[in-house]
Amino acid sequence: MFSFLKKRIYPIGVDISDDMIKMVQLANNGKGFSLLAGSTKHRRQDVIPRSSDWQRWAIEAMRDLTTNGGFRGRDIIALIPANEVFIEHIKMPKLKDAGPNAKKDPSDPDDKLRDAIFSKIKQKLPFQPEDAMIKYIVGEEDNVLVIASERTKIDRHLAIYEKANLQIKSIGVWPMALINTYTTFFGRRKTDIEAIVMLLEIDANCTNVVICRHKNLLFARSIPIGTKQLETDEAITRLVLELTACKRHFSSMQREVQIERLIFLTGQGTITNVFATIAKQLEMPAQMGNCLAAVEIEDSCYSQIDRRDCEVNWATAFGLSLSLS
After folding, report:
1. What is the pTM of this model?
2. Paired strand residues for 20
């Protein structure tokens, strides 16, 4: 009867985009994961994405969801949307070495590396370099994945969450959120630790691509083709060409390794026939990674999620909720 004392409740994962807000909260009782709450809000047609009206809509939507959606607390893991994130892959820059007899520089070597990375990518940024906030992830074979966003856009999102009376525990990025979902639910076998896989999250207006070795992020790219566009053979072919380019780029970075399989992080009600076509054209073994099927739904769960016929992709939101696990 004291089992509730052992339950760990995770923060609310907030996956926000131009068209929709998805909020989900997971828990773990020591035996497995369960869904506490999950809700969505679709943008009204009269609201222009990223406008001041959109900001007011987002604030009101999140207030409503957290008040009436059955969520526990107001701690959240926030997301910077994929279309507001710049990703670049570079080789590790060489730092100048003053020699073994030189006095040690008291400055943080991580700061030196950050400065060197910033110097290497600043000309490629699609926004003013002085407004950039960057995060870098050192991968294998001296490869570095750089994630950057505009400080003004991050501040805008922080203001939205603050006005919605939410407490930000952390700001997440979609590649790491997808890896969290994969490693928690679909990468738990011993053979998965060293396996290199390509994760695909096909959302309404974009396809998010991650290549990883378990928790190690090796490659990421967001392609502006989603389920809304995948209604013709021509659009599917365009997406396959983009995914082939991702595979080629990754192979140029790491020539001695091979992607073992393709994992579609999606729900049961999505366009599985299109996924089968994509896997066939890419000539890769593939599997479905339905995170909704990987968790129990508690009796007390207040949820708008119908996991039998769910067309909403919850992979990023799940991964955000799990970010502090």
Report:
1. 0.90
2. 42
CA distance 293 to 259: 25
What is the location of CATH 3.30.420.40 in the chain? Answer: 3-85+153-321
> What SS3 state is found at 254?
coil
Question: How would DSSP label each residue in 123-188?
Answer: GG-SS-GGGEEEEEEE-STTEEEEEEEEHHHHHHHHHHHHHTT-EEEEEE-HHHHHHHHIIIII--
- The pLDDT tens digits for 157-209 are 999 999 999 999 999 999 999 999 999 999 989 999 999 999 999 988 899 99
- CATH number assigned to the domain covering 86-151: 3.30.420.380
- Two tokens, residue 197: 């896989």
Burial class (CB in 10 A: 0-12, 13-18, 19+), 319: buried
Please, where in the chain does CATH 3.30.420.380 lie? Answer: 86-151
What's domain 3-85+153-321's architecture?
Answer: 2-Layer Sandwich (3.30)
